[in-house]
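Lecture notes, continued. The same structure-token format from the folding unit now serves as the input rather than the output. Read the line below as a description of shape only.
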């Protein structure tokens, strides 16, 4: 739909009338504002970083600038991983693109100027006509279009935050895997040392004629089996360090840092409903769908006017002996395309987004409940292993070791006791890793570290 006016050299009142009409039409779409989000600041607040995450237009090197090679804390790994993440930078680039779309939607359409010269056949001065046209429908629909583009910009900001949370969860998961494998390697090395001492005792007893060759052979076989498992775990540890090194932007790094020791988590004080409410309010995936729903509602409101595309209204002036000035209107007749199909399509897309929001909310509730249940259950299992099972196995092994020294039992009984203790210690490591994974999942399901901290400090209001 265009606003067209053909302007010739007219009298002053005619020019004032034309200017008044043009100004009135243009003013219909002048007051439009578009959002100015700060995705880097939003990510920093969610991750509890001191500084905002900066956007870089150029791709980074394969290996980002390396940090200290001797130690890598969890906080340092998270900061370096987020700053060097190409996935997050790509998400921030999409925010920039959406911001450009929002700025474009808030602009007035460019007017079109046309100049016509007509030369009389018999000679004489040429007739000069000037025309100025603008898209009237674009002007009138500009606020709604800008609103839709602004809502999609907010959705991209939420998607960028979701990407940042995924990056953080991935780094934390890899960090915990390295911690668990290092602890398991230590357990296996300690057991190998114990087997070496047992083998020396068994050999000494055999030399004095008090033992059997079977005890020495059994210990040698067990030591060989344990050595193979230790080699496998060391290789797994090295590969896990490579994965962590890539996650922090240094895939070619030495990956020889010393990590923080695993530390237990505090019990969960809040109720299940508090976690669910926090997730439904702060989860970025839900926010992105909600912003997209608002954008589709804007598009649904715009769909009805598309049947008038190509219409024009304005003022025309011409000289045929004398000047004449008057309004002109041309519009398509909606006999076949009434815009109903466009409205139905836009309404269906809006309904689709509403159903997607319901689906996502249900999924978030499930994520929170399952993560919370897994975390609480793993915490309870870990406490039982640490407080009851391992002390019991250590006492049992000490009793059998004393009996072995006195020659009351053979090496097989001691091996069984040692194996049971090792299995209990390995189980402690596995459950510790499960606790960490559940904590990472719970943190991700509610919307990030800052939301997690707010729920942990939440206290129910007294009636």
């Amino acid at each position: 739909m265009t606003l067209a006016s053909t302007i010739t050299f007219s009298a002053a009142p005619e020019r004032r009338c034309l200017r008044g009409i043009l100004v009135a039409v243009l003013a219909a779409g002048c007051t439009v504002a578009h959002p100015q989000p700060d995705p880097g600041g939003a990510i920093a607040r969610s991750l509890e970083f001191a500084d905002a995450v900066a956007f870089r237009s150029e791709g980074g090197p394969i290996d980002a600038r390396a940090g200290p090679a001797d130690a890598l804390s969890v906080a340092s790994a998270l900061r370096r991983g987020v700053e060097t993440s190409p996935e997050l930078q790509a998400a921030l680039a999409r925010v920039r693109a959406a911001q450009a779309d929002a700025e474009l939607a808030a602009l007035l359409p460019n007017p079109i100027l046309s100049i016509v010269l007509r030369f009389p056949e018999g000679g004489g001065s040429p007739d000069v006509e000037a025309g100025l046209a603008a898209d009237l429908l674009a002007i009138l629909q500009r606020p709604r279009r800008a609103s839709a583009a602004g809502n999609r910009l907010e959705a991209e900001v939420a998607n960028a935050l979701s990407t940042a949370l995924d990056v953080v969860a991935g780094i934390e998961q890899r960090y915990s895997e390295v911690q668990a494998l290092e602890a398991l390697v230590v357990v296996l090395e300690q057991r190998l040392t114990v087997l070496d001492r047992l083998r020396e005792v068994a050999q000494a007893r055999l030399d004095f004629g008090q033992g059997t060759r079977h005890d020495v052979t059994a210990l040698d076989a067990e030591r060989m089996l344990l050595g193979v498992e230790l080699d496998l775990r060391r290789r797994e540890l090295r590969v896990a360090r490579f994965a962590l090194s890539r996650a922090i932007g240094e895939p070619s790094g030495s990956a020889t840092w010393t990590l923080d020791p695993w530390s237990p988590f505090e019990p969960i004080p809040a109720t299940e409903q508090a976690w669910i409410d926090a997730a439904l309010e702060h989860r970025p995936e839900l926010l992105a769908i909600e912003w997209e729903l608002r954008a589709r509602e804007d598009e649904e409101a715009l769909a009805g006017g598309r049947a008038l595309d190509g219409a024009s209204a304005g003022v025309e002036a011409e000289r045929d002996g004398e000047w004449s000035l008057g309004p002109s209107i041309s519009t398509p007749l909606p006999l076949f395309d009434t815009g109903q199909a466009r409205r139905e399509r836009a309404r269906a897309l809006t309904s689709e987004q509403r159903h997607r929001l319901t689906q996502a909310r249900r999924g978030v509730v499930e994520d929170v409940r399952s993560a919370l249940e897994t975390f609480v259950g793993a915490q309870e299992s870990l406490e039982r292993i640490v407080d009851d099972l391992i002390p019991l196995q250590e006492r049992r092994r000490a009793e059998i070791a004393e009996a072995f020294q006195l020659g009351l039992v053979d090496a097989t009984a001691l091996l069984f006791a040692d194996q049971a203790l090792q299995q209990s210690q390995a189980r402690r490591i596995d459950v510790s890793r499960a606790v960490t994974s559940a904590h990472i999942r719970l943190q991700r399901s509610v919307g990030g570290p800052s939301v997690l901290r707010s729920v942990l400090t939440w206290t129910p209001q007294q009636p």
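Point for the exam: Residues 144 and 298 are 6 Å apart (CA to CA).
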